[in-house]
Amino acid sequence: MGIRERKQRERERRNQQIMTAARRVLTRKGFNSTTMEDIAKEAELSPGTLYLYFSGKEALYASLSLRVLQFMNMRLKSIARKTDMSCRRRLALMAQAMYDVYQFDPLIVVNMSHMQSSEILLNLSEEVLEQIKALSRATTGAVAGLISEGIEKGVFVDRNPTALADIFWAIFSGLVLWEESKKRLNSRKDFLKDTLELAYRIFIKGIEKHAWPGYPPQA
Amino acid sequence: MGIRERKQRERERRNQQIMTAARRVLTRKGFNSTTMEDIAKEAELSPGTLYLYFSGKEALYASLSLRVLQFMNMRLKSIARKTDMSCRRRLALMAQAMYDVYQFDPLIVVNMSHMQSSEILLNLSEEVLEQIKALSRATTGAVAGLISEGIEKGVFVDRNPTALADIFWAIFSGLVLWEESKKRLNSRKDFLKDTLELAYRIFIKGIEKHAWPGYPPQA
Amino acid sequence: MGIRERKQRERERRNQQIMTAARRVLTRKGFNSTTMEDIAKEAELSPGTLYLYFSGKEALYASLSLRVLQFMNMRLKSIARKTDMSCRRRLALMAQAMYDVYQFDPLIVVNMSHMQSSEILLNLSEEVLEQIKALSRATTGAVAGLISEGIEKGVFVDRNPTALADIFWAIFSGLVLWEESKKRLNSRKDFLKDTLELAYRIFIKGIEKHAWPGYPPQA
Amino acid sequence: MGIRERKQRERERRNQQIMTAARRVLTRKGFNSTTMEDIAKEAELSPGTLYLYFSGKEALYASLSLRVLQFMNMRLKSIARKTDMSCRRRLALMAQAMYDVYQFDPLIVVNMSHMQSSEILLNLSEEVLEQIKALSRATTGAVAGLISEGIEKGVFVDRNPTALADIFWAIFSGLVLWEESKKRLNSRKDFLKDTLELAYRIFIKGIEKHAWPGYPPQA
DNA sequence: TATGAATGAGCCTTCATTCAT
DNA sequence: CATGAATGAAGGCTCATTCAT
User: What domain count does chain D have?
Assistant: First the structure.
């Protein structure tokens, strides 16, 4: 009886094993220089085996993105749900959560920007594409929802919550990309955590209503 | 006498011609799907000719990045120099300038993030790499310098100016990437200009000293 | 005691099961596009099992050919034996029998021409190769024998009986291949039966002695 | 001025060079065992070059078929046009011509039967497919037309000319395939020419009207 | 300088076959 | 016997780059 489950678990393990190997190689060699054979070697499998678990290179890459998107989505939603905390506090928690997401998978932004290149998007299966879209929407929605709540409560300035959520995400992705490349160019210390914290602090200060005196213009 | 200069000018023209063609193709087909032959065709040249002007594909791509970096650098520096304006005002102008940069070359961020991928950086000539580093530093420096000035004048909160400049850049690159991909996924209207303006407004509000009452903690 | 036989019978059943599945898939997908896995799936077995019954892909394909060759051989021989009928009549019956063979396994000619391609022949085991040769010879022999008899009786023109038997087979295989491909190209009605009948009628008329007046030239 | 033509001629030469090499390798190794690299080596070119002249493996193979089809078509049509000869004579000439076609390219039938496999047909460009269909039709038409004429003149028995033309072709292809494989199995002498001649003699005798006394049944 | 045909290394993917369970 | 996951060799094809003209 338990056989089916065991098989399922083993399949899941291999999946993870491959994805982990892929992440390692990608981190080292970048997207375009990484070959399926590289990944197979890293996973100590044969090239053919990869195709038993992923229908192709793009699908494997897409899975990497999905996985971290799911993690991020989960984290943000669970924070959004903590209604006993103030909006401001929860937004601060979300900012912290983003750093966790980065630690969970430092490739996230590179991954995401790779995914977003049109050439990749065009080759993905409709199904995976939908999953990605849905997750993106859900994630942005979690942030936008919280900000929306803050606006209603008069805590945040009344601007389009989706735009503000976009900015929230942009700060994260922009900084990750930038710090990563600074690290590479100068092989210097990693300031990401501190800078990210500062950026979100500024962001939150910047959208607090009292920072915008006389806005919106009153009669 | 003028022969040498004429040659030089002609060479420069060809250079531009190729880069323009490259930008057009890249915009249409993306980085990985664009071949040297594509670019040659677009430039109405033969593949071989491209190699008379650029040592290889990576070098050509690097040149694209350099060109826009130079433009950006020029714009930001010229704004920094307008010492008759307030720091706050000049920062706002810089924010606007960033959008001009985007319009000058919408590929900029994709380009930059492409450049920043380790695989490319590893293959660039030391010389080009140095140029890129120098320009990056100069550009960040222009922003950081202005912010520094603002801090000294007590306008901005006293935080590491370089970190703040990084955030300034991150907001730009993050938003451009994100809005581009939203456009692609949803083929919707382009909100970049508005969102970018909002983001920088928030940023500037967020770093204004009076937004941080009691900071730094005083004895 | 019956155990050995039962095993033998079961083995035989599996053999047939696999061959039937193979024929179905081959008909659907063609030789080169059919994989062992396809066949295994169709037979509701695992790929590994196929190798317990056939030493490899080529051997399986060879078996398909052998099976129909055996059927054809049996039919032709049984007709040859009906010595109460005229040669002419028996030859006509053989012609009809060929169409039965086609119905028994429409893949026959494709199969045979596949088998005959040098690449396959080179890879077959000596044993299977011998079987095929023997059957071919026997089959041609059955036709040639009958024609020989007819020649002796003065019914058919005196030409090399083996050559005539070859032509007998060639008419069949040529027409099957051709009509099959016409069907595919034009997805039209199937004229095989009628055309085959006509062809053999012409063949028989053509070898009747009285069609060759003055042959062989007499002193 | 002459440059364009020279280029054109050189291109044509390369085309021929590749097709010749392909034919040689195919004859030696068969269709499925022949790789593009094999062909490239035989042509003393690099694999990549093959793709400058043929869009892919199938296209190259299709070209081989087209070439011989064109040759055959030309020959048959030119014979059909010799209206100063009797139908019977011209049909005999056509039969001889078929052997020439075989000598022009002994792969013809294998080629044709390869082309006709559905899996190949499905992958051909619409254009090439149309060419093949048109040529097939024209070729069959040339034979059918001649037979038709013979029927009208009361020389041949009144049966569907297309069916008779199909049989004409089937005799050829069936015999070529069969003799080829006999040659391979027994590495014996080549009887094709003689057997083919005999077959067509029988065919012609078989369709002559006087071979069918009382046909069609008269009132 | 410009050309563009040729190169050939390398990648993704398939699939016949094996073998531990 | 049966399974089916794993293998890995091999093939078709691409494309950055070169070089004879």
Answer: 2
Q: What is the mean pLDDT of residues D113-139?
A: 79
CB atoms within 10 A of CB B142: 22
Confidence of residue C219 (pLDDT cuts 50, 70, 90): very low
Q: Is residue D41's beta carbon less than 7 angstroms from any atom in nucleic acid strand E?
A: no
B162 and B191 part of one domain = yes
Domain for residue C217, yes or no? no
Given CB atoms, is C166 within the 8 Å cutoff of chain D?
A: yes
- Residues of chain C with Cβ-Cβ distance to D182 below 8 Å are 166
Round to a whole number and report the distance in Å from the CA of D111 to the C1' of F19: 38
Checking if the pLDDT of C1 tops 70, the result is no
Q: Would the pLDDT of B87 be above 80?
A: yes
Task: Give the model confidence (pLDDT) of D44-91 as tens digits.
Answer: 999 999 999 999 999 999 999 899 999 999 999 999 999 999 999 999
Sequence-ordered alpha helix ranges (H) in C81-105:
87-104
* Same domain as C22, residue C77: no
Specify the CATH number for the domain of residue C133.
1.10.357.10
Locate tokens 């993690």: which residue?
A71
Contact B181/A at CB under 8 A: yes
The phi, psi pair for B97, rounded to 5°, reads -60, -35
The last residue of one of the domains, among C10, C32, C54, is C54
Q: How many CA atoms lie within 13 A of A133 on its CB side?
A: 14
Interface contact A191, partner B, CB < 8 A: yes
pLDDT tens by residue, A61-96? 999 999 999 999 999 999 999 999 999 999 999 999
For residue C216, what pLDDT is reported? 56
**Chain B residues 100-139 within an 8 A CB cutoff of chain A:** 110, 113, 115-121, 129, 132-133, 136
Residue B121 CA to nucleotide E1 C1', Å? 31
Q: CA–CA separation, D219 vs D216, rounded Å?
A: 10
Based on the domain organization, do B94 and B193 belong to the same domain?
yes
Residue B139 lies in a domain: yes
Tell which strand F nucleotides have any atom below 7 Å from a protein Cβ.
1-20
| Residue D39 and residue D147 in one domain | no
Q: How would you label B180-201 residue by residue, b for 16+ Cβ within 10 Å and e otherwise?
A: bbbeebeeeeebbeebbebbbb
Q: Which nucleotide is nearest to B59 (CA to C1')?
A: F16
Name the residue range of residue B105's domain. Answer: 66-210
List of chains touching B (3+ CB pairs within 8 A): A
Question: What integer is the mean pLDDT of A56-61?
Answer: 92
- Closest partner CB to A205 (pick from B177, B201, B206): B206
Domain containing residue C29: CATH number: 1.10.10.60
Same domain membership, residue A158 and residue A93: yes
User: Is residue A216, in this structure, part of any structural domain at all?
Assistant: no
D159 SS3 class: coil
Chains B and D touch (3+ CB pairs under 8 A): no
Percentage above 90 pLDDT, chain C = 60
pLDDT of residue B219: 47
Residues C38, C117, single domain; the answer is no
CB atoms within 10 A of CB D91: 25
Tens-digit pLDDT profile for residues B123-179: 777 777 888 889 989 999 999 999 999 999 999 999 999 999 999 999 999 999 888
Find out whether C145 and C161 touch, Cβ atoms under 8 Å. yes
* Omega within 30 of 0 (cis) for the link into A217: no
pLDDT tens-place string over residues D3-52: 778 888 999 999 999 999 999 999 888 888 899 999 999 999 999 999 99
Judged by C1' against the alpha carbon of D123, the nearest nucleotide is F12
Is D86 in the same domain as D141? yes
Mean pLDDT estimate for chain A: 90
pTM of the model: 0.90
CA gap C86, C38 in Å, rounded = 48
Q: Are residues C8 and C94 in the same domain?
A: no
Establish if A59 belongs to a structural domain. Answer: no
- C41 contact to strand F (CB, 7 A limit): no
Which of these, D202, D214, D195, D213, lies nearest to D167 by C-alpha position?
D202
What pLDDT, on a 0 to 100 scale, did the predictor assign at position B216?
58
The residue out of A54, A80, A99 marking a domain boundary is: A54
